[in-house]
Design goal:
Layout (H helix, E strand, L loop, with lengths): L2 E6 L4 E6 L14 H14 L4 E2 L4 E2 H14 L4 H9 L30 H9 L5 H20 L9 H9 L6 H8 L4 H13 L14 H7 L6
Antiparallel strand pairs: 1-2, 3-4
Helix pairs in contact: 2-3, 2-8, 3-5, 4-5, 5-7, 5-8
């Protein structure tokens, strides 16, 4: 499959995407749900050892840890899947989709926010409903919200997460924090965000992507079949 660039929303940010995932608006997919699930499996397999944050956990390992924390907390199936896939938008923006052995550690020194949350939402929209998509789309805003409203939250952020906070617009002001809460699925996004920030433990053993296959297939929207 070929790669192409498209504009995300009105931000002028270029995103490298598989044209096999979705169109620019995230409304149509030229691949079947089976091929989509296979593509996810391949991404998680290739990304299993690629460093993220301080280099102590892989990007895909981080997403699997986030999903496991959600499962342990008894999260709804849709929120669990959102946790599992919340950072897939990094692939095709910050990192190539067709990666092999590249390091992911450069997030610590990134100089531009490529809006991976929007990219992930666009990529996944043909396959899942809003109860999966919107917490993913909002999980960066949730970090900015928590920094504005929870005095203990910002001080526990990792170095990488603190660095990217500045690139993502920084702490929300009061009006924007209130507007964030008015959005559907904002509470789910906040829950996702807290598990996201805790999912950076190198030695943590968690189930692989295959553990979630039945759930992923169950939540696929009918139009993706």
């Amino acid at each position: 499959m070929t790669k192409y660039y498209s504009e995300v929303m009105d931000r002028g940010v270029k995103i490298e995407k598989l044209n096999g995932f979705s169109d620019v608006a995230g409304t149509n997919s030229p691949i079947s749900s089976t091929n989509f699930i296979d593509s996810l499996s391949d991404l998680f397999y290739r990304g299993r050892s690629m460093a993220y944050g301080r280099g102590e956990v892989s990007m895909c390992g981080h997403m699997l840890q986030t999903a496991e924390l959600a499962a342990e907390a008894g999260a709804a199936p849709s929120l669990l899947v959102a946790c599992l896939l919340h950072d897939v938008g990094h692939f095709g923006t910050d990192y190539p989709l067709y990666f092999n052995n590249e390091s992911h550690s450069h997030m610590q020194t990134a100089s531009q926010d490529l809006h991976h949350e929007e990219a992930g939402a666009i990529m996944l929209t043909p396959f899942f409903g809003p109860d999966v998509i919107e917490p993913i789309r909002l999980h960066v805003a949730a970090k900015r919200y928590l920094c504005a409203t929870d005095p203990d939250y910002a001080v526990q952020l990792s170095t990488t997460t603190s660095h990217t906070l500045g690139l993502q617009g920084g702490v929300l002001d009061d009006a924007k924090a209130e507007a964030f809460l008015d959005q559907p699925y904002s509470n789910d996004a906040v829950q996702l965000r807290r598990w996201d920030d805790a999912a950076m433990i190198a030695a943590r053993s968690v189930p692989g992507i295959e553990h979630y296959m039945v759930l992923l297939e169950k939540l696929l929207v009918p139009s993706s079949e």
